[in-house]
From TrEMBL:
PROSITE patterns: ABC_TM2
UniProtKB keywords: Antibiotic resistance, Cell membrane, Membrane, Transmembrane, Transmembrane helix, Transport
Protein name in the entry: Transport permease protein
Domain named ABC transmembrane type-2: residues: 25-251
UniProt membrane topology term: Multi-pass membrane protein
Key word Lipoprotein present: no
Phylogenetic classification of the source organism: Bacteria, Bacillati, Actinomycetota, Actinomycetes, Mycobacteriales
Residues annotated as transmembrane: 24-45, 57-82, 103-130, 136-158, 170-188, 226-248
Cell compartment(s), UniProt: Cell membrane; Membrane
GO molecular function, one term: ABC-type transporter activity
A cellular component term, taken from the record's GO annotations: ATP-binding cassette (ABC) transporter complex
Length: 253
């Protein structure tokens, strides 16, 4: 690893964060969609949905948090595409900096931006009546799962950001990720779904992650569920990181 990797990454991170803060519409769009779904399902559909819990907003929040991350990482792919198109990567190659710091700056920018969005969504949920008796350790576990999930999806976003032929193509890959929670336990119990749909919902990563976060929020025993959730996050992260770095090396070679 280049001796100046951390210093180079810090400088490029500052550059990326300045771009994000100057784009207010990006910040608003990242949080407005999950908040809109939260309001819609709680105040419009919530009364007709039976989840076996007293507070639907508390049941719904874990899925909305994952949706928030899926919305936010689309901008990572978009910003990477713009850097590729504008020749920023070629310019950086002519400078004495660690090559991997360019990607890590985008990844860390995504992490910071998504943390802000997640905090905003939780605050909105609290205003809507969300309450949790979770202790500090449970909250730290929830934060850890969400950070790992964000890193996994961000590295996944790097791939279309480097390979897409258009800005729309770079960001459109996140659409299936945004709607994946709909076919999971995020909005309704999987037991209410028909056979094939239920089988898919119960064996896809979102359900495991949502269930782990929900159990931590409600102080329920997490059992092996949290390890399954972490395994999904770690597996996606490792696979996406390897593919992203291979793609990056081919692009700059």
């Amino acid at each position: 690893m280049n001796t100046f990797f951390f210093a180079d990454t810090a400088v490029l991170l500052g550059r990326s964060l300045r771009h994000v803060t100057r784009s207010v519409d990006t910040i608003i769009t990242t949080t407005i969609l999950p908040i809109a779904f939260l309001l819609l399902f709680v105040y419009v559909f919530g009364g007709a949905i039976n989840t076996g819990t007293k507070s639907y907003v508390s049941y719904l929040l874990p899925g909305i948090l994952l949706m928030t991350v899926a919305t936010g990482i689309s901008y990572t792919a978009f910003r990477l595409f713009l850097d590729m198109k504008n020749g920023i990567f070629e310019r950086f190659q002519s400078m004495p900096i660690a090559r991997s710091s360019v990607l890590w700056a985008h990844v860390l920018t995504s992490l910071v931006a998504n943390v802000v969005s997640l905090v905003v969504v939780v605050l909105v949920a609290l205003a809507m009546g969300f309450r949790s008796g979770a202790n500090v350790w449970a909250w730290l576990a929830i934060a850890g799962i969400l950070l790992l999930f964000t890193l996994a999806l961000t590295w996944l976003a790097v791939i279309p950001g480097l390979t897409a032929s258009s800005a729309d193509g770079a960001s459109a890959f996140s659409y299936p990720l945004i709607f994946l929670p709909f076919v999971s336990s995020a909005f309704v119990p999987t037991a209410t779904m028909p056979g094939p749909v239920r089988a898919f919902a119960e064996h896809q990563p979102v359900t495991s992650i949502v269930n782990a976060i929900r159990d931590l929020f409600t102080q329920q025993p997490v059992g092996s569920g949290i390890w399954i959730a972490l395994a999904w996050c770690a597996g996606i992260l490792v696979g996406a990181y390897v593919l992203a770095t291979i793609t990056y090396r081919r692009k700059i070679s």
